[in-house]
Amino acid sequence: MKKNAIILITGxxxxxxxxxxxxxxxxxxxxxxxxxxxxxxxxxxxKVEAGKRTMHYSVDYKNKPVILESVLDLQLDNDLSEKAxxxxxxxxxxxxxxxxITGVYSSRHDTTWAPVTGERAMISDHYNAMNITLVKDxxxxxxxxxxVRVYNEGVAFRYYFPENPKGTYYNIRAENTEFHxxxxxxxxxxxxxxAPYYKLPLKNWPGESERPLTIELPNGLFAxxxxxx
Length: 229
Hints:
Strand content: over 45%
Strand order of the largest sheet: 2-8-9-10-11-1-16-15-13-14
Order of helices and strands: EEEEEEEHEEEEEEEEE
Helix content: under 10%
């Protein structure tokens, strides 16, 4: 990993949160979470326009932008399950457009763990965490959480659905998370695992790239984008 490089991962499991904010109807707010060394800042914002809400995030390193304000969004279609169980059918075009922030939880975590193999006998697990709870404002059986960890080395976040009290399932049709990168960013593109790498601008790629994706930002920073299921 190059100097001044950070890692961003989506889909990581989080746990152990302490309540710091609780309330109904937190609107158009900006929530910030910093790494233990205070170099990396993750910001979450929910914008409200014409009665519809959109979640956004951004990431900075030492006040230099890594991810510009980008959309956090999932598209769900629970129509079949809702009808079969005689539940209220969601009529919103965008499933996330009427989510209301009802609670924000944060914690600090600093432990170590021993890998079975590897170059180090002990691995540090040191991060600050934030769990943002959102509820459909017209149907409280639907709860979603945006869970975030910020390490000194990078950021991890995911969408999490607690078990539904009515037993309906969550039919996720698409993940629409955006990564809005500064103009002039380049990336090392590869079509498949162990394929040749080509350093390309972000536009007009010849196909889909393998992950993790290493990028070079115009401000001299490097980052790797990955996904963990």
